[in-house]
């Protein structure tokens, strides 16, 4: 089963760029998170020790511990002896220090925090409101530091304790704002630096990857050029190679380049041997056809000699001689066709002339009418000459083949029309008949060699004299292609059209 890929359709460049930038982003994120978490933990540890210092200030107030009778001290359990307002403004307390006194019922009943001199213009204390006190009443009493949100003041790091001896229940704390400010600032700096770093890495990475992939693009250009070469037939010179600078086997691109060169070398030798074997076969067919002409002519000659000779022959011998002559004639045509095809395949030059198609059509249709008087023959010709540069004999043969098909593959009574239509730079020649048409499975292969319909095979098997070989349209195709033209077949029951398109001559 094929796995659906998220990156399908992405270029290698985009993939490399996105992967490396993502990797850098992940590393930066991990570094950022670890830095922030450890910095925050460290700052909270320091804040907790500062809270402990504040507790120490309470314990060791000037004059030796919780001093009775002194301002700010507390006289052994007196409910109002410890004045939080005075304590928070005593020397040594940082701005924002908060202190609260708890009653025996466990509720905070009095508290104050010190104001910052910088923002208020004076260093003083502010009593806590009832709402703030009730928020602080919930402070756990386990002697640890806890973060409490005090309405209107923000988060505070608070510690509850009982003054030994005096029994006074107190809580002191410091704001967490400086810690969270520092952490926020560090997070901001990390995000900005990471974003700038990613943008720079993206741009630098894109440039580096583009530079690194230049050789690969050169190799791809060569592969593209080779893919556009017509390799399927004829002689091919495959001179394209990846330059040696891009075939260094120590680099990945070099490995691709040298593999492509080896592949091109193999393809070139395969094409050469294909061409050599095609030439050999063509030469063999041409030679064999050529050699067969003489013995075939002799067979026909001797058969005719015996038939016309003075000796008396029985009806069986006469029939046999007739068959020998007609089959030898058929074989001669076949051999001539094969020879012509072999010569056209070998690219033998044709003898070009300026030919007007109209007289050629009249001649060939006249011949066809003589051969097939049962058909209705029509011509449709333009008033002006329709001139093409062509080998007259070969073109005559093409037309004769098309007209012979329209005669032999249709029943008597069929109308056959030969039409010449001068066009824009081309001349069109249609041979149309109203016969039963070419079978659907044969139509796509009708121009291939030895392609015949079943009825034609039956005739070839001796049912009718002069049976078909299946080479007529193959020859028409080869001749028209050698002239730089095209031939197409369009067929349906009642209408079959063979259309030749030939380049018109300039003087036409
Ligand atoms: N006008 C047509 N109407 C119907 N079928 C046709 C027509 N022209 C060609 N065909 C079919 O196409 C086949 C191939 O034609 P092609 O001329 O190549 O060979 P052939 O006529 O059988 O033999 P050859 O022309 O070599 O004597 C024919 O056998 C016939 O079945
Ligand atoms: Mg034919």
Automatic annotation (TrEMBL):
Keyword Signal: no
Keywords: Kinase, Membrane, Phosphoprotein, Transferase, Transmembrane, Transmembrane helix, Two-component regulatory system
SUPFAM superfamilies assigned to the protein according to its UniProt record, in alphabetical order: ATPase domain of HSP90 chaperone/DNA topoisomerase II/histidine kinase, Homodimeric domain of signal transducing histidine kinase
Catalytic reaction equation(s): ATP + protein L-histidine = ADP + protein N-phospho-L-histidine
Keyword Transferase: yes
GO molecular function: kinase activity
Residue intervals passing through the bilayer: 21-43, 186-209
InterPro entries, sorted: HAMP_dom (IPR003660), HATPase_C_sf (IPR036890), HATPase_dom (IPR003594), His_kinase_dom (IPR005467), HisK_dim/P_dom (IPR003661), HisK_dim/P_sf (IPR036097), Sig_transdc_His_kin-like_C (IPR004358), TCS_sensor_his_kinase (IPR050428)
Gene3D superfamilies in the cross-refs: 1.10.287.130, 6.10.340.10, Histidine kinase-like ATPase, C-terminal domain
Domain Histidine kinase: 287-506
Enzyme Commission no: 2.7.13.3
EC top class, as a word: transferase
SMART domains: HAMP, HATPase_c, HisKA
Domain called HAMP: residue spans: 210-272
Official protein name in the record: histidine kinase
Cellular localization per UniProt: Cell membrane
